Amino acid sequence: MPSKWVSHDTLCTTTSETHGSKVRSNWDLIWEKVKIIDVKWRLKMKKKAIITKKAPAAIGPYSQAIKAGEFIFVSGQIPIDPSTGELVEGSINEQTRQALENIKAILEAADSSLDRVVKATVFIDDMDDFQAVNEIYSQYFVNDFPARVCVQVAKLPLGARVEIEVVAQIWQEGQSKHFTD
Asked: Which of 47, 79, 102, 171 could link 111 by a cystine bridge, Cβ 3.0 to 4.6 Å?
């Protein structure tokens, strides 16, 4: 039998390892390791709200983003100027740019970047704006484009013409903050 496999007989025998005066079986030792892994996973997956003044405050009962495990989930960003708290008026290009700038600021506050985005969802109020949104979007995402959905909706908060949400990986120690070839 290959060394990586453990036979049923081996698992069912007791070991000489003791805990106090109690002899523990291999099953007990395995279960203990499983519990340790479970605790480490739960600590790693604990969620944390991300808040930055470099992006607009949430306009409802939600966080700008949530960090969970190795990912950050950025709430939908509409084109609000964080310095004024007002919706950016103007073309779909200007609104798309502001929404992406807000996302960029939130990602940076969470130790991530646009380079680490794995999924984006774009909501627009007019599918005729699809090409214009893509023109600005492609200036922010240049390599290994994230998976994406773009849908037309009837209406967006505050009369915005575009809203974008993303999921990104979080930078881990020892990794580059930006993906490179």
From this structure: 171
